[in-house]
Design brief:
The structure holds 2 protein chains of 2 kinds. In chain A, strand 7, helix 9 and strand 8 form a beta-alpha-beta unit. Chain A has 12 helices and 10 strands. The two termini of chain A are 36 Å apart. In chain A, the strands form 2 sheets. A 6-stranded mixed sheet of chain A has the order 6-7-8-3-9-10, sandwiched between helices. In chain A, strands 2-1-4-5 form a 4-stranded antiparallel sheet, with helices on both faces. Chain A is globular and about 50 Å long. By secondary structure, chain B is of the alpha+beta class. Among the domains of chain B are: 192 residues, no CATH class; 75 residues; 126 residues, no CATH class. Chain B is elongated and about 100 Å long. Classes of the chains: A alpha/beta, B alpha+beta. Chains A and B meet through helix 4, helix 5, helix 6 and helix 7 of A and helix 10, helix 11 and helix 22 of B.
């Protein structure tokens, strides 16, 4: 950790110096443009839940360096539902891993709720991740030996929340996400969509500062994908949960309020839904995807 | 190329192979060390006292080794299956890349060769070291002194070990090749993480199964404690015993089958405990493994039970022998003469090869004086070489007495038989004797005056039979004494050649029944009758006993030495020069004690050997099962880590699961053993007191170290697997 930081310090200078106008523009636009309609502008501007500052991720040795992420900066406000789109290998999953503290950045800082997670020690990170972050993956990542109820309760029991409160909160979140009927089933007794909604409930139950979803609809058919995305909307609306979702599916992205497009480890552009309908937003996303060129077919 | 691949595989899959290597190494070590027993016995100086002891032990141990190698072979197949299961995909990949099945099989065979060779090398080194240390252990077991300790290496033991290892290797290889030969590529490739199908077993059903199992065990315990062991071979008792055994086996299986469900149900009812930390994960992981694990846990509990019980019983029996040798060795030196019967005399005289044309055999009319007869022996070595064997030169107080055959001369039926006595008291014949003779087992007869002379010599109170009394004597333990005691207690009258005899005692006095030094007793039944009856019935002589104590303050070693020097035996003749008897056993107190020590050593050796290998085999199975369980659950542990559980917490959960898997079978085995032993102790006590002494404690310690060692290895390797699982991040 420390080593990477000290190295990052002197990498940052040339990358900033050589930084293109596009990059700094993206960074500049975020604070100036007011937050989307559903969030109160003052709150969002006052305290971004996620503040990503100039992060880089470099793989490989001296002779063979791959920049998975090159000077990426953005913020996410409280209660926002943000999508990150990009083709395979664009660096979107790396970004998510770095933001979610599962992977370490080479340089730059990630602040979650004002706390710099890149400076945290491993032992503290575990606790931080447990309390501040929620995860949803492409495969639901449920423990196959536990029932849905137990899976959802798991983050709470790990945090030693009293049993009574745990069970009430599980029932509550299950009811909101319409999965009360599967609570006593094992993962293998559920459909893929149900599994993903259980995973979403598990991510939500701790009321984390930020929920991260990595291709959550990737393994679902369109009907179940829609159910899951509606479920995310519910989370976002009912719990004011902040969701960061990585996807390469434009349809999934159209459920968000803002989409960041990543290409070759850099933020290419961003789209805000504003007041437009989901269909309109979808069309605009499709345009950007087409504009991003050769990778358009990949991105779809 | 194949060589390189195989070598790389072994190194890469090192952790998987580690358990395999460890167990095989332990097996080789133990096989080698125990097979050097004949050499050890030499160095420990046991053979000086017991010629042939080394060979006997060596023979038994090599036989056992073959059997244990067989057990080990199957264990290794199991261990290997574990490795294979995890590598199916890799073998599939080789074939997809164009390798033939033969080549894949060769890679696998080479891997096994590497591991076996490593195990052999490590094992032999450890075994050689262990066998040097074991010499001291052997010496203490056999209670001897090591005269000349030197480093030794036994090529025979090495050969034996290599042969066993080769056999194990062959078995493993055959099973492995079957896996490769049978598997289709598609199956191999899709074999990824094939977790055990997690069946939604109703915890209520499990809990009920558990309770039924526990109840069955309790019933079996109660039955056993109430009925005891069917040592007298009564078919009804035997049947009851079999029912008890079946109950405990079924109970044990049900117990383990329902265990996880029961724990789940109980802990779920304690909400604060269940919904806390990783407790529910631990319990659910346990419950998920119920199918594969419960049966093997039950089997392991039973094997541990057998190991503990047999080792303890064996060692206790040895200690009983120690205790009974005290009683069975009343004097410093005994020698015994066996008189020829009429039939023997006739046979001998008819055979010119035996008589050599000159000697004649005859039935003794008068007892032979054993002191005089002994003087016809000639000492062959040492300072007294060439001199006659002069018993009186070492004798303090001594006594000679005669035992007579209960079959009168010219008659065919004995006057008193064991079957007759059994019938009189309505008891079955002791097992093993029912079929031994049609005419029945005749007792020996002793004159009242001879017996009183014996009692005086022993410093005991004399008996008075009056004109119609009798006594029964035996030092052969409860099997026959139960019958004799019943006869005496019920006051059974005996028709002895027309005379009506009644018992004058209530019980057999075993201490006053010993006529020769021996560790197990020699007098299976003697009736003491008024002197006149022996003559009136014309009973032929059977045994002549000489019992002798060294003079007060005599040099025991010198006296033992005088007796121990090789002699040529003189012929035992009557006054007319006819040969009337042959020498029977002679024993000093010292030699008797020594043979008990050897017996002790032998039993302890076998018990430890069998016990150790069984315990290691059980522990290895548990280890392998646990590790494969941890590996299968790796995905779950990774998720836990991502949810913010620290690795130590996960390791803690894994430890809890392992503890249950290791401790419950052990606890069950110990519980079974305690109950069984309490019954066995009752039985063994009949033979004279039982002390579960230091030797058993020491053995238990060795076993616990082996078992605990495997537990630690399991934990450490399991932790490593968890760490790996947690580290490998979800692929992008």
């Amino acid at each position: 950790m420390m080593g990477k930081h000290s190295m990052g310090a002197h990498v940052e200078v040339p990358s900033d110096a050589a930084g293109g106008a596009a990059r700094s523009r993206v960074h500049m636009t975020l604070p100036t443009v007011p937050a989307p309609a559903r969030t109160s502008a003052t709150e969002a501007a006052a305290a971004p839940v996620l503040d990503v500052r100039h992060i880089e991720k470099v793989y490989g040795s001296r002779n063979n360096v791959t920049h998975a992420l090159a000077d990426v900066s953005f913020t996410v406000s409280r209660g926002e539902f943000v999508g990150i789109m990009g083709a395979s290998g664009s660096g979107k999953s790396t970004l998510l891993n770095c933001v979610s503290t599962i992977d370490a950045v080479t340089s730059g800082n990630v602040l979650i709720d004002g706390v710099d997670v890149t400076a945290m020690k491993a032992s503290k990170l575990t606790k931080f991740r447990r309390e501040q972050l929620g995860f949803i993956f492409q495969d639901s990542n449920l423990l196959d030996t536990l029932t849905a109820r137990e899976n959802i309760a798991l983050p709470l029991t790990i945090s030693r929340v009293p049993a009574g409160e745990t069970l009430v909160r599980v029932e509550d979140v299950a009811a909101r996400l319409s999965i009360s009927n599967v609570l006593d089933k094992y993962p293998y007794q559920m459909s893929g969509g149900q599994q993903q909604r259980v995973a979403a409930a598990r991510a939500l139950v701790t009321e984390p500062a930020l929920i991260m979803a990595d291709e959550p609809t990737g393994a679902l058919d369109s009907k179940n994908a829609r159910l899951l995305l509606e479920c995310f909307e519910t989370m976002n609306r009912a719990y004011r949960a902040t969701v960061l979702m990585v996807t390469h599916d434009s349809f999934a992205a159209s459920y968000t309020q803002r989409v960041l497009f990543i290409r070759d480890g850099r933020i290419f552009t961003e789209l805000r839904r504003g007041t437009s309908s989901r269909q309109e937003f979808f069309n605009r996303i499709m345009e950007v995807v087409a504009m991003m060129g050769g990778e358009a077919s990949d991105a779809l | 190329m194949l060589f390189k691949l195989a070598w790389g595989n072994v190194r890469r899959a090192g952790r998987d192979y580690l358990v395999y290597l460890l167990t095989l190494t332990l097996a080789v070590t133990v096989f080698y060390a125990f097979n050097t027993i004949s050499v050890q016995v030499d160095i420990a100086g046991v053979t000086e006292q017991n010629a042939g002891m080394g060979e006997t032990l060596g023979g038994i141990i090599s036989g056992l080794t073959l059997f244990l190698a067989f057990v080990m072979g199957f264990l290794m197949v199991y261990a290997n299956n574990f490795i294979m299961k995890r590598r199916k995909k890799e073998f599939g990949l080789y074939q997809v890349l164009g390798m033939s099945r033969g080549q894949v099989a060769r890679i696998m065979a080479l891997e096994t060769v590497f591991v076996s060779a490593a195990a052999l090398a490590f094992g032999i080194v450890l075994g050689v070291a262990l066998s040097q240390v074991m010499v001291f252990f052997t010496a203490s077991l056999f209670k001897t002194q090591i005269a000349d300790f030197h480093f030794f290496f036994s090529p025979t033991a090495l050969l034996m070990t290599v042969a066993c290892l080769a056999a194990i290797f062959a078995v493993t290889l055959v099973f492995n090749l079957r896996v490769v030969a049978r598997a289709r590529i598609i199956d191999l490739m899709s074999a990824g993480r094939q977790n055990e199908a997690i069946k939604a077993r109703n915890p209520w059903v499990s809990a009920v199964i558990f309770v039924v199992g526990a109840a069955a065990i309790a019933i079996a315990y109660a039955r056993l404690l109430h009925d005891g062991l069917p040592y007298d071979g009564d078919p009804e008792k035997m049947r009851d015993f079999l029912i008890t055994t079946a109950t405990v086996i079924v109970g044990t299986i049900l117990f383990f089958f329902g265990l996880s469900g029961f724990l789940l149900k109980v802990l779920q009812s304690v909400r604060g405990l269940y919904w806390r930390g990783l407790n529910m994960v631990t319990l659910r992981q346990l419950a998920a493994k119920v199918n594969t694990a419960s049966f093997s846990m039950a089997v392991i509990a039973m094997i541990l039970f057998l190991a503990i019980t047999s080792v303890t019983t064996g060692m206790s029996l040895a200690s009983v022998m120690n205790a009974s040798v005290e009683r069975g060795t009343p004097v410093d030196y005994t020698r015994c003469l066996v008189y020829f019967s009429e039939e023997t005399v006739a046979e001998m005289n008819a055979d010119p090869d035996i008589t050599g044309g000159t000697a004649t055999y005859a039935v003794a009319e008068q007892p032979v004086d054993l002191v005089e007869a002994s003087a016809k022996d000639t000492i062959q070595e040492g300072e007294h070489a060439g001199q006659p064997f002069d018993v009186l030169s070492i004798a303090g107080d001594y006594v000679q007495l005669e035992a007579y055959d209960s079959t009168p001369r010219g008659a065919r039926e004995p006057l008193v038989t064991l079957d007759g006595l059994c019938e009189a008291v309505g008891m079955p014949m002791p097992s093993g004797t029912e079929t031994s003779g049609v005419t029945g087992l005749g007792l020996m007869v002793m004159r009242e005056s001879d017996y009183n002379r014996y009692l005086r010599f022993r410093g005991m109170d004399e008996v008075d039979l009056g004109s119609g009394g009798y006594l029964l004597l035996s030092d052969m333990g409860a099997t026959v004494n139960d019958i004799y005691n019943a006869v005496l207690a019920q006051g059974v009258t005996i028709d002895f050649g027309g005379a009506e005899l009644s018992p004058v005692a209530e019980r057999v006095d075993e201490d006053a029944s010993v006529f020769g030094n021996s560790m197990m007793g020699m007098n299976s039944g003697t009736i003491v009758v008024p002197d006149g009856l022996v003559d009136a019935c014309d009973l032929p002589l059977y045994y002549g006993y000489l019992m002798l104590d060294y003079p007060e303050g005599a040099d025991v070693a010198a006296a033992d030495g005088y007796i121990g020097v090789p002699r040529t035996y003189g012929t035992v003749t009557d006054d007319a020069g006819n040969i009337v008897a042959a020498w029977g056993t002679e024993a000093t107190r010292t030699t008797t004690y020594e043979s008990v020590n050897s017996m002790n050593g032998l039993i302890s050796y076998l018990a430890i050997y069998i016990g150790f290998v069984l315990v290691v085999a059980c522990a290895a199975i548990l280890t392998i099962q646990q590790l494969s369980g941890v590996a299968d659950a790796g995905e779950n542990y990774r998720i836990l880590s991502e949810l913010g559980t620290s690795t130590p917490e996960i390791a803690h959960s894994v430890l809890a699961q392992q503890t249950i898997f290791f401790v419950f079978p052990l606890a069950m085995g110990v519980a079974h053993s305690v109950v069984a032993l309490s019954v066995i102790i009752d039985l063994v006590e009949l033979f004279g007191g039982l002390t579960i002494g230091g030797m058993v404690g020491f053995t238990a310690l060795i076993f616990l170290i082996a078992y605990g060692g495997y537990f630690c290895v399991t934990y450490l390797l399991g932790k490593g697997i968890v760490r790996d699982a947690v580290r490998t991040r979800h692929a992008n």
